[in-house]
TrEMBL record:
Signal peptide feature range: none
GO molecular function: metal ion binding; oxidoreductase activity
Pfam families from the UniProt entry: 2OG-FeII_Oxy, DIOX_N
Ranges where the Fe2OG dioxygenase domain occurs: 213-313
Native organism: Iris pallida
Protein name from the UniProt record: Fe2OG dioxygenase domain-containing protein
Top-level division of the source organism's lineage: Eukaryota
Keyword match DNA-binding: no
Gene3D superfamilies for this protein: B-lactam Antibiotic, Isopenicillin N Synthase, Chain
Keywords in alphabetical order: Iron, Metal-binding, Oxidoreductase
Length: 366
């Protein structure tokens, strides 16, 4: 694929990008220079198990929603609040989505990535967008590439959908994605209610302001790599969403988050979903809850698949710190802008830690 990015009136051509899965088939021991990271960007080869203080919190949704045991619910809410405040990430168990649906979604996504290249290329990712099959966030010839193939789709509202990019093979892909996305959407609504409660806001504070929320899905496939010490499956970044819901492969560890200057691996829990705070929620909470930089590393022997959902306010919604979370002691840290403005800014910049969020910050001179 040879994507072309348009910036103003100037056309920037990005050279041919070889499909990673095909590369693994034809030259399994080769790691092209475009994938080899600079020494300070390369993942550590250390495999020491995380300590208890490095383990991403686990939140039990069943306990949070338990009306018959208020003490248990209060304790779980305390854990939920601490996870949002101190980590920006947590694993959610007893979330109410059937395990069979999670398994079906995993299966149809994997079936898609197993298709011949010519079949997958029927759904090409257009330059400057985040829908279709291919590489995203590529803007120059010398930019290092992620060891990953992805399929990204707009889900809701209906006007962001591009039906011609929804695979017809496997035949049950669209049906499964529809049911899966509807379940994740309801989960996100419940999580926003809990988030509001944890901040002392009225329970529908976020739901009321989000309008017709934007929902997108992305499936990431990370083939095995002969030199996992040289590459990254996904570059360090924070998400532009309000909430992100990740269904990760339980067969291998790949997701890492940056905690206190150290990359911490998120150990998969069967049937759990990984939830993380996005840039939008950091802005709305005036920095009380922060989005967290994360990345994906690869494995020498195993592939890895993840299914990600991004949930955010309507593009027309004006964002900025919520008035209830601003005071003379906690002045606004972020300016006002629309989610559509931030989305355009996000997709036209390469993944580079939390640099994208600089767009929203109020910069004061001393």
């Amino acid at each position: 694929m040879a994507p072309v990015m348009c910036s103003n009136s100037n056309e920037i051509k990005i050279g041919h990008i070889e499909d990673v899965q095909e590369l693994c088939k034809s030259r399994p021991l080769a790691v092209p220079e475009r994938y080899v990271r600079e020494p300070d960007e390369r993942p550590s080869t250390e495999t020491a198990a995380p300590t208890a203080t490095q383990e991403v919190p686990v939140i039990d949704m069943g306990k949070l929603m338990c009306g018959t045991r208020p003490c248990q619910a209060r304790e779980e809410m305390r854990k939920f609040t601490a996870a949002c405040r101190d980590w920006g990430f947590f694993q959610l168990v007893n979330h109410g989505i059937e395990n069979s649906l999670l398994e079906r979604m995993q299966e149809v996504a994997m079936d898609f990535f197993k298709l011949p290249l010519e079949e997958k290329e029927r759904y090409p990712m257009a330059p400057g967008t985040l829908q279709g099959y291919g590489h995203a966030f590529v803007f120059s010839e010398d930019q290092k590439l992620d060891w990953c193939n992805m399929l990204a789709l707009g889900v809701e509202p209906s006007f962001i959908r591009k039906p011609h990019l929804w695979p017809t093979n496997p035949s049950n892909f669209s049906e499964t994605m529809e049911v899966y996305s509807a379940n994740i959407r309801e989960l996100c609504k419940r999580l926003l209610i809990l988030t509001a409660r944890s901040l002392g806001l009225r329970h529908d504070a976020f739901g009321d302001m989000f309008g017709e929320a934007v929902q997108a899905a992305r499936m990431n496939y990370y083939p095995p790599c002969s030199r996992p010490d040289l590459v990254l499956g996904l570059s360090p970044h924070s998400d532009g969403s309000a909430l992100t819901v990740l269904q990760q492969d339980t067969e291998s560890v790949g997701l890492q988050i940056l905690k206190d200057g150290t990359w911490v691996s998120v150990q998969p829990i069967p049937n759990a979903l990984v939830i993380n705070i996005g840039d939008t929620l950091e802005v709305l909470t005036n920095g009380r809850y922060k989005s967290v930089e994360h990345r994906v590393v690869t494995n020498r022997d195993r592939s890895r698949l993840s299914v990600v959902t991004f949930y955010a306010p309507s593009y027309e919604v004006e964002l900025g710190p919520m008035p209830e979370l601003v005071s003379k002691h906690e002045p606004p840290v972020y300016k006002k802008y629309t989610h559509g403005e931030y989305n355009r800014h996000y997709i036209t910049n390469k993944l580079q830690g939390k640099k994208t969020l600089e767009f929203a910050k109020i910069h004061t001179s001393c």
